[in-house]
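A.,

Following up on our hallway conversation. Structure tokens first:
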């Protein structure tokens, strides 16, 4: 049984990544149009657009980081509720992005950060 909170977090993370993809696609299209307007050859324009669409742009990087944070929070929620890993939508989405070992490291870092935050709050 999936936890409702995890599912909400998973959908929110997916939405952030959809916005990220749309903005990246838009960036590439804008570069293509700009280069076409000044008569840059098509192949060069396509390469420049592809590079522009993949360039790390701070707001886009922040969207991806926020999506990952939501997924990690969802995994923690599932773990605290005792949900089976196979039923944790956030974990399933996270594992599409990183390997199992990387997910373990990320979760460990998240737990350590949470522990420090709770320690300061006490």
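Then the amino acids I'd put at each of the 122 positions:
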């Amino acid at each position: 049984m999936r936890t409702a909170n995890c599912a909400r977090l998973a959908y929110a993370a997916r939405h952030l990544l959809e916005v990220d993809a749309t903005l990246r696609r838009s960036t590439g299209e804008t570069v293509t149009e700009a280069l076409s307007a000044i008569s840059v050859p098509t192949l060069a324009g396509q390469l420049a657009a592809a590079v522009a669409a993949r360039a790390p742009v701070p707001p886009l990087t922040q969207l991806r980081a926020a999506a990952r944070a939501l997924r990690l929070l969802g995994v923690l929620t599932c773990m605290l509720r005792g949900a089976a890993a196979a039923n944790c939508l956030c974990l399933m989405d996270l594992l599409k992005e990183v390997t199992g070992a990387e997910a373990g490291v990320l979760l460990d870092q998240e737990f350590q950060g949470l522990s420090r935050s709770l320690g300061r709050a006490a």
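DSSP finds five helices and no strands in the chain. Curious whether your intuition agrees with the design.

B.
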